[in-house]
Specification:
The chain has two domains: about 210 residues, HUPs (Rossmann fold); about 90 residues, Tyrosyl-Transfer RNA Synthetase (Orthogonal Bundle). The chain is about 55% helix and about 5% strand. It is built from 14 helices and five strands. Strand 1, helix 1 and strand 2 form a beta-alpha-beta unit. The chain starts with a strand and ends with a helix.
């Protein structure tokens, strides 16, 4: 199976990003043909600092590698280094109704969040995402629930193109995480974890042990002492149970049994140990990679060359079908 996914280079990754995307990618790369992308062209559709963009791209590449992506088992590259992404996005845009783009939930949300920055790129974001996916004849797209609508539109665009010009694209399937798709803030367990919105409610992937300890001990819990999974009545402890389960490999039922009759403090101290032990190898690997900038750039350049070969083949076929060759 061919797998494609990507993350915007917009700052430090947190454990929600890892559990919702990268952890799944690492498992997928073992048995599939995986293509993972740093989607810098998507990053510039919302406010950003141009002088920080290259630094953010490099930091994200290091984070990918430190967390376990293996460039010998997957293609890793920067989106803007493969020009076929933007060309295909334009071609797909010529046959996509504007109304479909305006109905996208993320467009509406980002329009509200950045009313001063509503641009054509933001509206056309789903076209570029469709191009990212279809360019590589992708079978599976591992994404969070918030991106599912975009993949559904991608499928519709593929169907429409195939019907009009003949079989050209595969219709990709969405792959959602079974558990942990949405890790909530430690300070407000009814909101998604976000460094921008709530730094104290967020644990970064390379957080120092002392910071992990402080943030978990200060994490919001619920009335009572029972360690029980109930997102409606006990959102705080349910969020911590989800995090504990995903980092320890134990089921939530097992954890409920292990901590029966024990209080929140004991549970939190145990979770702190699990997180520190799991994340420490990432921190150490990142330290080593930060000193190897040339090595990282070579991985990205080689990845772009491999991606370009697949992308050029698809685009040549598209151009023929559309009468451009």
């Amino acid at each position: 199976m061919r797998v494609f996914s990507g993350i915007r280079p917009t700052g430090e990754l947190h454990i929600g990003n890892y559990l919702g995307a990268i952890k799944q990618w690492i498992e997928l790369q073992e048995k599939n043909e995986c293509i993972f992308c740093i989607v810098d062209l998507h990053a510039i559709t919302t406010p950003y600092q141009p002088e920080r963009l290259q630094e953010n791209i490099m930091n994200l590449a290091i984070a990918y590698l430190a967390a376990g992506l293996n460039p010998e088992r997957c293609i890793l590259f920067v989106q803007s280094q493969v020009k076929e992404h933007t060309e295909l996005a334009w071609l797909l845009g010529t046959m996509t109704p504007i109304g479909e783009l305006q109905r996208m939930t993320q467009f509406k949300e980002k329009k509200k969040k950045h009313p001063e920055y509503v641009n054509a790129g933001l509206l056309n974001y789903p076209l570029l995402m469709a191009s990212d996916i279809l360019l590589y004849q992708t079978d599976l797209v591992p994404v969070g629930k918030d991106q599912k609508q975009h993949v559904e539109l991608t499928r519709e665009i593929a169907r429409r193109f195939n019907k009009r010009f003949g079989k050209t694209f595969k219709e990709p399937e969405v792959l959602l995480p079974k558990i942990g798709e949405k890790i909530m803030s430690l300070q407000n367990p009814k909101k998604k974890m976000s460094k921008t919105d709530d730094p104290q409610g967020c644990i970064e992937l390379f957080e120092k042990p002392e910071e992990i300890k402080n943030k978990i001990m200060a994490a919001v819990t619920d009335p009572g002492r029972e360690i029980k999974y109930d997102p409606k009545k006990k959102p705080g402890i349910s969020n911590l149970l989800t995090i504990y389960s995903l980092f320890s490999g134990k089921s939530i039922k097992e954890l409920e049994g292990d901590f029966k009759g024990r209080g929140y403090e004991e549970f939190k101290k145990s979770l702190i140990k699990v997180l520190i032990n799991y994340l420490e190898p990432f921190r150490q690997k990142r330290k080593r990679l930060l000193k190897r900038e040339t090595f990282i750039k070579e991985i990205l350049n080689q990845g772009a060359k491999k991606a370009r070969l697949i992308a050029q083949s698809t685009l040549e076929n598209v151009r023929k079908k559309m009468g451009l060759i």
